Amino acid sequence: MIRRLTFISALTALSLASSAQAATFNPGTYTAVAKGNGGDVPVAVTFTANAIQKVEIGQNKETPGIGSVAIDNLPKSIVAKQSLGVEGVAGASITSKAILTAVAACVKQAGGNVDELSKVQQKQAIVPAQTLNADIAIVGAGAAGQTAAIRASELGKKVILLEKMPFAGGAAAVNGGTVVIQGSKIQKDAGIKDDSPAIMTDDYIKNGHNLNDRKMLSLYVNNVGSMVDWATTYAGMKLNTKAGFTNEAEHSKPRVMRWVDGAQGATRNFKAAVEKSGTKVLLGTPAKELIVKDGKVVGIKA
Ligand SMILES: Cc1cc2nc3c(=O)[nH]c(=O)nc-3n(C[C@H](O)[C@H](O)[C@H](O)COP(=O)(O)OP(=O)(O)OC[C@H]3O[C@@H](n4cnc5c(N)ncnc54)[C@H](O)[C@@H]3O)c2cc1C
């Protein structure tokens, strides 16, 4: 049964930085490179005589949806706060560190004072608590939470999706980018007609050394096919049917395919589907407490 849930956003602390005082630079554009998660992160910083005017990030291979969050946001923060002491992006700490290291190298080249610019004075700005209403509030924008949000809104429900990280995707944003499609139309269309929930169960039990949770496994093997059909039609997820099945030792039948563009493609398509669903997504918002009334969960504090 779906109940109307309330989501309360608690006091949010914003950090405000005051500008570094009396910064001086030799005006111009300087470049530096630092190692990120996917390789080199090239940075170009433009200075006026007393300000960091522009921070630009060049071609890089940081993970879309994770490292890219730092690439999109950190340069703006550095310029807005005129500081090297800005907080990195949670979950994208390696990319954040690369950007800050390369910008610091540019500051040095421009004759600026890295130590001074790294001092950030933080003030706490209190945003008053607000109450938001929805039919369903979902905690966690991983694959499960995003799927639940898309499905709930398909059923006409108003949904709020809370995610503690500054990006959605959870493990699915960085995983192997494959999915089991046993029982789906795509598996049958690809000519595999002799697979079944029973065969898949045997494979999993064997691979799991008989330690599997049978109830959960049964739920999985009996629903994954229709789930994949729904995801690839209604939810706009795209399987790489051209590449065909992947070969994985634990599966006795061809039943695993890659998403188009792997985990990155799946993350992009999930994001688009969640946006299209009209779900209100609140990133960087950890759920802290369930609000229980008369033994029923009626809300979440976050
Ligand atoms: C390295 C790796 C490779 C994998 N490869 C594959 C593969 O190729 N194919 C496959 O099918 N599966 C693969 N898996 C498994 C698959 O990725 C996971 O089973 C699936 O992504 C789990 O999704 P989830 O939504 O259940 O959990 P999660 O991805 O863990 O999502 C939970 C989300 O909740 C958020 N959260 C937690 N607490 C709070 C809170 N208090 N408030 C707000 N948000 C919160 C988290 O930040 C996270 O985003 C792989 C897993 C890993 C780790």
List the helices and strands and how they pair.
Layout lengths: L4 E5 L2 E6 L10 E8 L4 E8 L4 E6 L9 H15 L11 H17 L4 H5 L3 E6 L2 E5 L1 E4 L3 H12 L4 E4 L15 E3 L4 H5 L7 H11 L6 H20 L22 E3 L3 H16 L2 E3 L6 E5 L2 E6 L1
Parallel strand pairs: 1-14, 8-9, 9-12
Antiparallel strand pairs: 1-7, 2-6, 3-4, 4-5, 10-11, 13-14
Helix pairs in contact: 1-2, 4-8, 6-7
Bound molecules: flavin-adenine dinucleotide.
Provide an overview of this structure.
Helices cover 33% and strands 24% of the residues. By secondary structure, it is α/β, with parallel strands linked by helices. It folds into 2 domains: 19-120, Sufe protein. Chain: A, CATH 3.90.1010.20; 131-301, FAD/NAD(P)-binding domain. The strands form 5 sheets. Strands 7-1-14-13 form a 4-stranded mixed beta sheet, with no helix packed on it. Helix 1 (67-81) packs parallel to helix 2 (93-109), helix 4 runs parallel beside helix 8 and helix 6 (197-207) packs across helix 7. Mean pLDDT is 90; it is low at 10-20. It binds flavin-adenine dinucleotide. Residues 139-145, 162-165, 170-172, 175-179, 286-287 line the site of flavin-adenine dinucleotide.
Question: What's a concise summary of this model?
Answer:
By secondary structure, the protein is α/β, with parallel strands linked by helices.
Low-confidence parts lasting 5 or more residues at pLDDT below 50?
Answer: 10-20
The CATH class of the largest domain is: Alpha Beta
Measure the end-to-end span.
Answer: 23 Å
Shape: globular
What's the CATH topology name of the largest domain? FAD/NAD(P)-binding domain
Domain module count? 2
Number of DSSP helices?
8
